[in-house]
Write a sequence for this structure.
């Protein structure tokens, strides 16, 4: 392993519980733990509790170590007795001494896996908060949905490891090797990734808000929909120019930007200052523009398929195609009772518009073309949608109560979990249509 740049390694504190005489029940890791404190005689106390692996079966067992600590004021703590091995299911410790006054005890649990050999280990859904994994070898390990918040993973080998959908906030990955690792949908808020190797990492939809990426290498990393708000970068950060530009827009706010024809596909531009920006012919497909300031901006000929307009600021001076202004209006102002019959908000079989959560109560969508439109959790109650093209449209979780979908084309549409009470489907067309109960219906 290459020598690490100088960086302090801090101690860990995973679990702390406080009790006087009696019993306290709590959850630790994946299990229920009961701490009992009982007097054995006038001069001693018996402490007992349960322990077990913080990684659920069938994963590799990981056992914390325990240290009993004592305090008279809940502020100053001192260790009592030796560090106890947590691999035993039942642990007990007798505390000697006079306990006439108020005495408090806590059990501090810590996990030390520094420089451990965990190659290809399965640690899915493990609770390793504050754990010490400094220099551990986790090559190819499976750590799906693991909780490593505030853990020390500095200098560890996580090449090709799977950390998808994990809680990694506040963790230190300083100088760690994450080459080709799967970090999709992870929470990396305020994590230290400085000097880390993240080349070709899968980081789709990861939250890097406030993370430290100084001197990190992210060449070839998938950073679509990655949040870079408040993220630290420097000149030594190796990152695709596209994502550095996104970072600059988010963190070095400036109006009047010249962004003609720029590729912003899948960029997280939430709350970005794009006031009076030139975004003509820019590709903003699937970009998150929620809360962004697009007043007076020029989006002529911009590609906005599946862009998210929730809370986006647009004014009368914003140059934008009529179709996308309508999408913005429906998303932010609703379309209750609005006449939208014959309106075409589709584009092709694979790309369309995002209207998730829109209020279309009592709207007239008769004969409209809404092929492949995202209508998840939309209010379509009492909407007139007869003869509407709804192929490939996602209406999962939507309110379709009393909606008229007679003669509508629902081929490949998704109605999972939708409220269909009173909905009319007379003459509707079904082809691989997912119904509210999850079943698939064909005509």
């Amino acid at each position: 392993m290459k020598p690490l740049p100088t960086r302090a390694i801090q101690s860990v504190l995973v679990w702390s519980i406080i009790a006087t005489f009696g019993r306290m029940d709590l959850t630790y890791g994946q299990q229920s733990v009961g701490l009992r404190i009982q007097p054995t005689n006038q001069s001693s106390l018996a402490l007992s509790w349960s322990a077990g692996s913080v990684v659920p079966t069938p994963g590799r067992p990981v056992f914390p170590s325990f240290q009993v600590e004592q305090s008279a004021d809940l502020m100053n703590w001192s260790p009592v007795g030796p560090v106890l091995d947590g691999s035993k299911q039942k642990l007990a410790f007798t505390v000697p001494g006079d306990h006439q006054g108020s005495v408090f005890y806590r059990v501090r649990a810590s996990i030390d896996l520094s420089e451990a050999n965990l190659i290809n280990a399965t640690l899915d859904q493990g609770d390793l908060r504050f754990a010490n994994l400094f220099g551990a070898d986790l090559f190819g390990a499976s750590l799906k949905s693991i909780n490593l918040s505030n853990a020390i993973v500095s200098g560890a080998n996580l090449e090709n490891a799977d950390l998808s959908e994990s809680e990694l906030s506040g963790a230190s990955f300083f100088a760690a090797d994450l080459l080709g690792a799967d970090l999709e949908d992870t929470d990396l808020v305020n994590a230290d990734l400085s000097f880390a190797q993240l080349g070709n990492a899968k980081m789709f939809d990861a939250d890097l808000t406030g993370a430290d990426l100084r001197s990190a290498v992210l060449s070839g990393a998938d950073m679509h929909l990655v949040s870079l708000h408040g993220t630290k970068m420097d000149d030594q950060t190796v990152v695709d120019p596209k994502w550095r530009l996104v970072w600059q827009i988010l963190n070095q706010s400036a109006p009047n930007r010249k962004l003609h024809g720029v590729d912003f596909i899948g960029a997280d531009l939430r709350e970005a200052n794009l006031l009076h920006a030139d975004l003509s012919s820019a590709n903003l497909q699937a970009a998150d523009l929620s809360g962004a300031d697009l007043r007076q901006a020029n989006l002529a000929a911009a590609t906005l398929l599946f862009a998210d307009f929730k809370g986006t600021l647009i004014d009368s001076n914003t140059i934008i195609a009529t179709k996308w202004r309508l999408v913005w209006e429906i998303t932010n102002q609703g379309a209750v009772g609005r006449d939208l019959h014959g309106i075409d908000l589709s584009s092709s079989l694979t790309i369309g518009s995002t209207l998730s959560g829109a209020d279309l109560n009592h709207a007239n969508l008769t004969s409209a073309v809404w092929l492949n439109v995202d209508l998840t959790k939309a209010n379509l109650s009492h909407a007139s949608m007869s003869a509407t093209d709804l192929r490939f449209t996602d209406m999962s979780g939507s309110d379709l109560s009393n909606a008229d979908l007679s003669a509508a084309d629902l081929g490949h549409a998704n109605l999972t979990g939708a409220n269909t009470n009173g909905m009319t489907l007379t003459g509707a067309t079904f082809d691989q249509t997912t119904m509210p109960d999850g079943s698939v219906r064909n005509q």
Notes: The beta strands are 18-19, 22-28, 31-41, 44-50, 65-71, 78-85, 90-96, 104-110, 433-434, 440-441.
